[in-house]
Amino acid sequence: MYVESDRGRFAWGITGSGHYLDKVLNLAARLDAVDLFLSKAASEVLRMYGHRVAGLCERMRVYTDNTASSPLVGKFYHGHYHTMIIAPATSNTVAKCVCGVSDTLVTNIFAQAGKCRIPTIVFACDGEPVMCSDAPEGPVVVYPRRIDLENTQRLRGFEHTKVVTTVEQLHAALTERIKCLSACYS
Fold first, then answer.
1. Which of 1-15, 39-53, 56-70, 84-98 has the lowest mean pLDDT?
2. Is the separation of the CB atoms in 62 and 36 below 8 Å?
3. 7-185 belongs to which homologous superfamily?
4. d(C-alpha 104, C-alpha 93), whole Å
5. Helix (H, G, I), strand (E, B) or coil at 137
6. What are residue 102's phi and psi, to 5 degrees?
7. CB of 82 closer than 8 Å to CB of 5
8. Which residues does 170 contact at the CB level (< 8 Å), separation at least 6?
9. Among the listed residues 110, 22, 10, the one whose alpha carbon sits nearest the alpha carbon of residue 60
10. Mind listing the pLDDT tens digit for each residue in 172-186?
11. In the chain, what are the helix, strand and coil shares in percent, each to the nearest 5?
């Protein structure tokens, strides 16, 4: 996957979930011109899964949640980003996005992307009634609550937002977005 960096960048938010984290990071690393936005929980989870933030900085720009006002959101208003991705997105993040709460770096950039009509892809961790997920010790079976499934469904109704629930769907959505960008810029 490749998109020319002079046409804008991918804004990629990571929240506090390890759900297919390695595969998600591999997808992000395959993109040209991607900036990672890490919630405080994401920084913790990355370490639990053996990823160093410093190592990610070698491949892409990394912004961490360490200010109350999130001055980075201004980049969305100035055309720095053509696509917003949240992957993986915890049920907590999905619930906040659905309710309009923007109190973390990732939920704040989701809100700003929406206000700027920037196409957004959300890989919701809790999208199926029974799921196998990665934990630091190995795979675990999880049973998302009804409210989590309902919030994932509500998020599907948001403008300019595509919700996916598998890594394969995330890959397909990214491929589709790249084709759209290529057509726009050619």
1. 1-15
2. yes
3. Flavin prenyltransferase-like (3.40.50.1950)
4. 9
5. coil
6. -130, 70
7. no
8. 24, 27, 87, 121, 123, 164
9. 10
10. 999 999 999 988 876
11. 45, 25, 35
